[in-house]
């Protein structure tokens, strides 16, 4: 037998393939025939008992807390991570208007919050008008001051709806403010297309400068027809928007009138000035209203839309940039408030791809369901949360479990072939994940191995089902008189504890069992075979 590497799978001489030939065959097959691996998700409850939670965020670099805005109480609550414990005293408590679409709508932490303690609140103040104000943390890191240091934005609202209300710092360090068109229906004042009115716009402000906080690089600076604060226009009600922390791309969920909901997209390379078309367009569709030229090349079309067949109001979301679910990197989530539908998608540079409805998958285990989604949020590590109006906050997690794939070909003892299953826990911390072989050849030598990819390549009398770098699980195994064997994986030992084969939370690995079959070789076949494949997703 060849010497056994501590990490890589090396085959015994009678396997007839060297590891080089095996890896080469698998790599070729992965290009030609590898099946895609579905990412199965679920949700776990972070915390509950909030009063109309509408926004969740965290200070830069603070992975131990998230901050939750309660719309009508005017409170910001702190939730400790990972326990989900709500700190008893609110971080801040301010007076707000309590109309249906009014109240405390969001908050943002200064990029240098760790050193200056500045944070910003967006609210509809008593009297119904939009205010964005600057505040500072006290000597207690869990208590912020309600005292207004500066008023950054003050704008009157002609109606009680379409306040927008999202604020967020972009990757450029500027504060972005989303404002709705002022309310009522069909934008009766044509404010979204009026460059002298801040309503129906995205503003971009430099809070490190003196009032009026205008960055000189704003797209309309010096244009007498458009206010200097404006970054983009033609929005109806950008209730929720977010920046992709990896690319700087801006995703805007713009609530529609009565027919179409839309997601707008601005690449991180944009210099601003986009016109998203309201009120002459709703989604990709002409409204018949004045204000701009429908389908004009001067307008920026949405990247995603859905109609009001069971839906009513888009809830813009965030792009996943956490580490717990590596395969989810770059995936954007959004939802509809009425139907509870949740979509995920990716942007490939020219448009969205891989659009998937996720609501069934993301509903929690058991009888609980997620409904009336008001917002999506991110913690400092990039993990994603779903907020319900009823007061519950859910974290998107990976659905840890196993599934079979590929096939196990018949052998000299079992015409249906060798199967591979598991028992124990997929939680790494439990360290009790077991691999179980049945239907193999009795009293024969075998090797468990694993790798990150899936394939289906002819090998011996069966199929090689694993690709992308193969790692063996030591020591070798021997089947019993029934053709069965059993192995407990040890996540605390190589190769599963360190290096390229390390199993970490969010890992998806594929397992297989190679075994000798001398009787098949005597009958003219190969002297070895493979089990079916087993795919496993691991949790913390």
Topology of this protein?
Elements: H1 19-33, E1 41-47, E2 53-57, E3 65-70, E4 75-80, E5 92-93, E6 104-109, H2 113-116, E7 118-124, E8 130-136, E9 150-155, E10 167-169, E11 175-178, E12 201-205, E13 230-233, E14 240-243, E15 250-254, E16 260-266, E17 281-282, E18 285-286, E19 304-307, E20 314-315, E21 332-336, E22 342-347, E23 352-357, H3 359-362, E24 373-378, E25 384-388, E26 393-398, E27 402-405, E28 419-423, E29 434-438, E30 445-451, E31 453-459, E32 462-467, E33 471-478, E34 485-488, E35 508-516, H4 518-522, E36 528-530, E37 533-537
Antiparallel strand pairs: 1-26, 2-3, 3-4, 4-5, 6-7, 7-8, 8-9, 10-11, 11-12, 12-13, 14-15, 15-16, 16-19, 17-18, 20-21, 21-22, 22-23, 24-25, 25-26, 27-37, 28-29, 29-34, 30-33, 30-35, 31-32, 35-36, 35-37
Structural commentary:
With about 550 residues, the protein is mainly beta. It folds into 2 domains: about 15-40 and about 400-535, no CATH class; about 40-400, Neuraminidase, CATH 2.120.10.30. About 5% of the residues lie in helices and about 35% in strands. The protein has 4 helices and 37 strands. The strands form 10 sheets. Strands 27, 30, 33, 35, 36 and 37 form a 6-stranded antiparallel beta sheet that branches. A hairpin with a 2-residue loop joins strand 17 (about 280) and strand 18. It is elongated, with a radius of gyration of 28 Å. It starts with 18 loop residues before the first helix and ends with a strand.
